Amino acid sequence: MIYMDGYRENCIEWITGEDTITLSISQKKFITKIESLCKKHPDKAKIITHNNDGSILAKLPLKALKLSIIEKELTDEQREEMAEKAKKRFHGGN
User: Fold this and answer.
1) What is the model's pTM?
2) Assign residue 6 a region: left if phi > 0, alpha if psi is -120 to 50, beta otherwise?
3) Cα dihedral 15, 53, 3, 66 sign
4) DSSP string, 47-88
């Protein structure tokens, strides 16, 4: 498959009345989240295949799909504090 400079499609589909969604995901942050869900809920979430381009095809319960918009207004101090906390978590507190 040929992609334009970083262009990679993501797709979520489901049939009305069904309780399962099928996802084709290429973004690493979502792949990681789906892998985590599969470990926590192996009876409900499953990665069907890992594709050669790094994307995955997965099935999850419809309950896993949440559509919301969360906007946070942060001060520069709050952003700096969050960045420091993230650095500590990432680097193990060093």
Assistant:
1) 0.66
2) left
3) positive
4) EEEE-TTS-EEEEEEGGG-----------HHHHHHHHHHHHH
